[in-house]
Amino acid sequence: MLLPTMNEKEISAEMMRDLGRLENTKDRLVHEYDKERRKHKIDRSSVYPKVYPVKTKAKNNWLIFMHKSLSQDKYRNCYDVALCNVVFYYDKYGLKAMRYIKETDLIEVFSGHLFKRYNERLQLNLSRPIDAVIRFFNTNGYLQHIMYEKNGTWKTMGICKEGITFGEFQNEEKWLVNKTFITKNMAFAKQIKIEKGLIEELEAEVMLGSMFENFNEAEYKMKKEVLSSIAG
Question: Per residue, what are the HEC states of 9-62?
Answer without folding.
Answer: HHHHHHHHHHHHHCHHHHHHHHHHHHHHHHHCCCCCCCCCCEEEEEECCCCCEE
